[in-house]
Structure formats: structure tokens, C-alpha cells
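Thread: iron/sulfur cluster complex, take 2
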Amino acid sequence: MPTQTLPSVCPMDCPDTCSLDVEVVDGRVTKLHASNLNPVTQGFICAKVGDYAKHVYSDERLLYPLRRVGKKGSGKFARISWDEAVREICTQFTAIKAQWGGEAILPFNYGGSNGMLGQGTSDTAFFNKLGASQLAHTVCAAPTTAVARAMYGRMPGVAFQDYVHARFILIWGANPKASNIHLVPYLKQAKAAGAKIAIVDPRLNFSKNEFDLHLPVYPGADVAVALAMINYWREHNLLNREFIAQHTVGAEILLQKAEEYSLEKAARLARVEAATIEKLAQMYAETEPAVLRCGWGLERNRNGGQAVAAILAMPALLGKFGKRGGGYTMSNGSAYRVDENKRVEAVPTQTRELNMSQLGKILLEENAPPVKGIFVYNCNPIATMPNQNTVIQGFQREDLFTVVFEQVMTDTAVFADIVLPAVTFLEQKEIKKAYGSFALQYLEPVIAPLGEAKPNEEVFALLGRAMGWEDRAFHEDTEAYLRRAVASVGNIKNLNFEKLQKEKIAFFDFPGETPIQFVTSFPWTSDGKAHLSPSALGENPFGYLENASDDFPLTLISPATGKLISSSFGEFNLPELFLTMHSADARSRTIKSGDTVRVFNQYGEVRCRVKVSDSICPGVVSMPKGAWRKASQNGQTATALAPDTVSFVGGGACFNDARVEVVRV
Ligand code: SF4
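Output below.
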């Protein structure tokens, strides 16, 4: 059979959402490339998805439903039929509900391969009907989403392609080279045209000729730096008082709080030079157009939400909106104005909400009722949730009935009682909203499902029918859910299912193709203004809490890398994790590159090798996000060292509040 090239779309948890051409030879996927359908992503894709065939045909791929036959976590399973699996799940959940109530069942999911059908359709209907506990999705983007929505509503951000118009680009807490690669060519183009680029990050991911200023802020101190910059603008009369008066509310509280932060104070807290903060404040204030790329790195600590609020207020305080290439970009995920009620007919629920970032606690501590059944999908919590050792202990509970619905045998699936095989995106129909650009895309299967793998919407409908439920949600097929998804999107003109199916992509119709904030895209707040001190910040807006530890003097960060997307591809793409450490910290501990070390704190210990590099600031060490247990020498990864405390704003995970010590083994 000749080689076929078939269209698809990458629905992984990445802002770019590339349109793809998939090479299929003899019914087997060989390679994935960029297609020209989406102009923002044409030309190239990341290596990890280029090699997606390794994931599809992995030895770890789940092809049939399985039942545990060994001890919990032993990885011993026997193949069963879908009928048997569905019957057992329904029997167990029904018994749990009868004895403990529906809230004793916890659906546990996140955005593994996250199209519009993958979550929030028949799964929601199923768990709502059961009366299961609700899950607060806080492991990523909870503080930023809470703050951005409170400040600007669902205002679309500056498009990547408009970065070429900016003359100053501030990248704060983001690494586009790992997880937003299609922004990089626009940064290069802007730089070649004379733009200045500044980066705020404890780790430098750019080479010398790619940026103009680097501020290696100590994790957790971003709010102090942002407030000091704001105070500097106030003192030097650089604020745009006209814009503030006309388009914002709440500036007084922010400006008053900022008065507490001199450049020197912020520099001390952030362990940087005051002169560098001043330089950054000057560059931002004096250059037009100026755009801010706010990432998710800065939210991963107790002060995260407060920092995001101060940083997102900056373009408003300086009046940087109103021109192409000016303003800010965060997630555009909520810019689509999706009507969730149109996506699925689910009974409303008022059950308790549990914070996913405290899963270990939830499974181990007394709760009323205790969690007795957990259904994990689109997610690998043992690799990704904080305080890994408690999460593992929780999944070891013999009285916990665990279902894992997955593509490959993950660290979490090993602990399941029942494993269900899921399709990959190359085997399904889906609709994907890009959260970086402004495109809605449709994808069709390029190969048949492997083994007996099924898509999410089908499996939860199957479970609902097996429960004997008559609700429409359990009697609709994939096409009905696709149509519902399209109908739920409120602000793409002339959008309908047939058109999207034919054309495969639909764009927002901003005048001039991309939005200009405060000209063609506006805050979707009650009064159409930017709320600079929203109530979401609580009683101590812009508060800063220090987090020092005498026993554990180093801060561990665990950023995304070019190898994994959260924990996806960990079965083959990150065989060994390394700790990155500054030369001064390594020297004082007589550690050199290649040495095996213990990285430890009160929560756990990771044994791995070290890379000494001055790309990271002193006092901070780094380990990749999402690594699987086999990547370390003792089965614990960065999450084993992360506390399960949550941020005040948004209840977000505080990975970067991990304080550790490192010793050579
Ligand atoms: S992970 Fe991101 S960059 Fe890679 S193919 Fe998917 S959308 Fe594109």
C-alpha cells in the first residue's frame, strides 16, 4: 500500500495546537509533520509529537481491558472483556454509593490529550448522575485563570504573530522553547527588527544573542519584583493616568501596596540586582509597542496568584494596550465563550469539591465520606501530583477501588484494579480549541483504534447505559457530541459542524484577523474595565509570604522540558532524570557533573545524577516536570519533594515551594 498523508491536529496540553500531516504506511503511522492548515504552526512541530508513533506502538500501550490479579501495584493483570470490565465498575460503584454515598467516588482527570470530547461530556453526565465528588483542577493554571478572569474577563490576548510588531517583549515565567515553540520564530523576527527582549526566570533557556536582559528572580518573589517596578513607575511619573482612569478600577489598592516595595527591598527578596530591576522597569515603560508573555511558572508557589495579578496589571498601568503588538498574552482557552450546558445534558450537582493537588491527603486522611472509588482518566497522578509518596500510599490502599482509563501502562495504571484502554488522538474524532492561537480544529482518525481501545465519550456512555440510566447523555454517539461541541462555541461566526468537518479549521473573526486589546477585544467584566485589585486576591491583595527553611536551603523547581508534555511520553522519552545545579552550590557540596546525589526534604528523596550549569541561578536546583518513576534511581521524582500545600488564590499546586538539600552519594 502506498504511503498516505492524512490530516490531523495535535490536541496535547500545549498552547500551539499544530495542524498535522500524518504519514501512514500500510495502515501504520510512521511520522508526524506540520501541515499548512494553521498558518501559526506551519513549518515545524516539536520532536516529541514528531515521534508520536513510538507512543502509539509502545510496548506499554494498553490494548484490552485488564483486571488486577497480583498485589496492588505489582503490575500483574489479566485480560478481560469490555463487558466484564464495565459490569465490575458498575457493581463496585453501585456498592460504594449504597454504603458510603456517591461522594465516596472521585473522578480524577486532567488534560492529557484534551479535545472538547475528552472531558466535560458523557464523563460529566456519568459522575454527576452518580453524585460523585467534584474535582478542583488545580495542578496547573488555576491561580492564573482565576486572576486573569477576575481582572480582564475572557479578553483574548495578543496573537503570537503580532509579537513581530512589538518593540519590547517581556517573557515572565514562561519557556517558549519547551512548551510554546511557535512563538520562537516571532521572537526572532521581532529581535531582528530591533525589539528588545527581557526574560524573568530563575533558569535561562535562551542564548546570549536572543535576549537583552535576564532577571533571575528567586522562585516566589515575583510579586515583590512586580510591585517594585510598579512603585518605580509611580515615583517617576511613568504611569498612564489617563488609561487608568478611563479603563480600570482598583488601581489605588495596587499602587498603595506597591509603595511598600523599593527596588532594593525587592532585589533582596528576589536575590537579584536592584539596578537590573530598574533597567527592566525603564525598558518596559519607555518602549512601544510592548507585549508581556505571562507564563505559568510564576504561579507554582504560595504567592503565585498575587504575582500574576501584579504582573498582568502592568500593561494597564502603563497604557500599553490599544496598538498591534501591545498588551499581554496568557491562555486564550476561555476566549471561546463555550456554553457548557450545550456540550452535555448533565444533572446539576452540588457535591463536595476536592482539590486534586492534595490527592495523597484525600486518599489517606479521614474524610466524610472517605474516598472508596477513584476513576483516573487523561491523567497520571503518581507522576504529576505533589507529595508523590502520599499519592502512592493512597493508591496502595486495598480498600480503594481504582479504575485507570489510559493509553499506556503509566505509573498510576500499575495500581489499578481495572484498566481500560484509551485511543490516542490518531484513532479518534475530536474537536480542539487552541489556547495559544485562535483556531478551532477538527480531527478524524488516521488509523483504526488499536486493539479494543475506545474514546472517552463512548466509554462513559457505555457505563451510563450499563447502569440502566435512560438520560440522553448516555445514548448519544460521537457525532452527536461533536455537533454539540461545535454548537457550544459562541463567538466564531458562521460556524457549523458540516463546515468545520469539511474545512477542518475555523478562526475567530477579529477585524484585521488578530485582536488588538482595548480596540477589538475588551475585558469581559461586569463594567468592561480591567479590575486591577480583584476580590479573588482575598483579604491581603498582593501579599508576599516568605518561604525559607534552615534545614533545606535550596529551592527546587520542576519546569516543563522538551521531552514530555506533563507526563505524556514518559514511557520512552525521558529515560533518566537529572538535577541541574549552579556551580557555586555544587562546589560548596563537592559535587560535580555526573555525580549521583540524594535530593531530599521532609517529603521524600530522589536519587539521580547531576548536571552542573550556570543557566540556573544560585540557590535553585531544577528537575524535569512529569518524569516517570523509572527515570530516577529510587522510584521517586520531583513531585516526591513538592509540598501539597496550595496557593491562597485559586488553590493551585505549589511545586516551587519545595525546599531541599542535596548531598553526594
Ligand atoms: S505538543 Fe505543541 S508544538 Fe508539539 S505538536 Fe503538539 S501542539 Fe505542536
